[in-house]
Amino acid sequence: MDIAVRVIAGIVGAAVIVSVLDAAIRTFVLPRGTVVSLTRVISRGVYNVFRLVMRPMSTYESRDRVLALYAPVALLVLPAGFLVGLLVGFAGLYHAFLAAPFTLALKESGSALFTLGFATPVSTGATLLVYAEAGLGLALLALLISYLPTMYGAFSRREVSVSELSVRAGTPPTPSTWLVRAFKTGFNPRFPEVWERWELWFVELEETHTSLAFLNFFRSPDPQRSWVTATGTVLDTAALHMSLVDAPYSPEGAVCIRSGFLALRSIARFFGIPFDPDPAPDDPISIDRSEFDEVVAQLEAGGVPLKADRDQAWRDFCGWRVNYDSVVLAIAGFLSAPYGLWSSDRSPVRVHRPPIGRRARAALRGD
Questions:
Q1: Which whole-number Å values give the CA distances from 36 to 42, 43, 50, 63, 86, in the listed order?
Q2: Residue 133 half-sphere exposure, CB side, CA atoms within 13 Å?
Q3: What is the DSSP letter of 308?
Q4: Cα(17)–Cα(167) distance, rounded to whole angstroms?
Q5: What is the pLDDT of residue 266?
Q6: Distance between CA 224 and CA 292 in Å, rounded?
Q7: pLDDT number for residue 199
Q8: Alpha-carbon separation of residue 366 from 175, 226, 357, 360 (angstroms)
Q9: pLDDT of amino acid 122
Q10: Cα 141 off chain centre by
């Protein structure tokens, strides 16, 4: 009976070690967005704790302060969880190969994992296990140390463009603000260059936010800014410029929109958020005609030249918007994004919809 228990402990211990190593490699090393069960379990556990903390909070600002800590805390808990897995897994191997009681095996494992050296191996096999465990523990810490600069480098590049958009489109950003400012300052002819830059931004967004999944949850330094609402604003502005503004056709704008909705779909696919991969141009969208007409009025008041056929402009806008409408709303709700016109302001009820903050209301009034 004792031999059977030791064999089972050895098998379970080896399986735990393999699971931890697989999760660490696919999370920290593999340059591809893959769903890692162990990583997801740990991150969801951390998020559930944060949900309990946020439950009594009634304002978006207070919840945002808590959510800003989620990704950094999860990144610290994740390697700690991996280390616990190695501790338990190697304890099972020590119990199997050294015939030691599990409490003593756990002590041996802790001594080796944290290189404390207070437990001395008694055989060649035990010595090899100690060396392997100590090496793997140090390797996990080294992976985390090398992972963080990559994460924060991608975060910094993302936020530079988000901050630049606030200069052009306000905080919170809106398409009408961006277009009016562009025409008043004579910037409109340079929009093709702008669409090209945002196309590259979307390409990098797709790569980094699927291979570095925690990057999605890193919130902007300004609580009223977000990469999600910035994405919605850029896509809506490009769609309005293509469909409504009386300006030469810009193929760069069309490619920018395609690059944007492909990036959003890849991120949604990674997190299991459903969406229609091939919507029809006349499928319904979350924006109604009255909201579109309100933006038309704002653009007219701002002196932006518009196309005469507003009905056709509305149909063209819907044809562009339908490609990213549902997915941008779902991601905005999933990440509890701040207020953003035509994005987080109409996120699905199943996810948290933040109210409009004081700064957002002031920006919309033009204060």
A1: 10, 11, 21, 27, 17
A2: 36
A3: S
A4: 50
A5: 96
A6: 23
A7: 97
A8: 14, 20, 14, 10
A9: 64
A10: 23
Distance CA 78, CA 74 (A): 6
Q: How would DSSP label each residue in 13-45?
A: HHHHHHHHHHHHIIIII-SS----HHHHHHHHH
Residue numbers in the chain where pLDDT is lower than 70: 1, 117-123, 125, 349-367
Handedness of CA 122, 125, 129, 131 (dihedral sign): positive
What's the rounded Cα separation, in Å, for the pair 230 and 331? 12
pLDDT of residue 95: 84
User: How far is 84 from 81, CA to CA, in rounded Å?
Assistant: 5
Task: With beta carbons less than 8 A apart as the criterion, state whether 243 and 316 touch.
Answer: yes
- Number of other CB atoms surrounding residue 263 within 10 Å: 24
**Amino acid letter at 15?**
A
The amino acid occupying position 260 is G
The two three-digit tokens of residue 298, written as one number: 């704002």
User: What contacts 319, CB < 8 A, 6 or more positions away?
Assistant: 243, 281, 282
Render pLDDT for 323-359 as a digit per residue (tens, 0 to 9): 999 999 999 999 999 999 999 998 774 334 443 344 4
Cβ-based neighbours of 11, under 8 Å, separated by 6 or more: none
Q: What residue type is assigned to position 184 of the chain?
A: K
Burial of 286 from C-beta contacts in 10 A (0-12 / 13-18 / 19+) = middle
Q: What is the pLDDT of residue 343?
A: 93
- Burial class (CB within 10 angstroms; exposed 0-12, middle 13-18, buried 19+) of 185: exposed
Distance of CA 349 to the CA centre of its chain: 20
Predicted TM-score of the model (pTM):
0.86
Give pLDDT, residue 118.
67
- How much is the pLDDT for 352? 40
Q: What is the pLDDT of residue 365?
A: 41
| Token output for 271 | 């997190």
Signed CA dihedral, 82, 87, 92, 93: sign only: positive
pLDDT score for 26: 87
Is residue 220 within 8 Å of 276, Cβ to Cβ?
A: no
Cis? peptide before 101, omega within 30° of 0: no
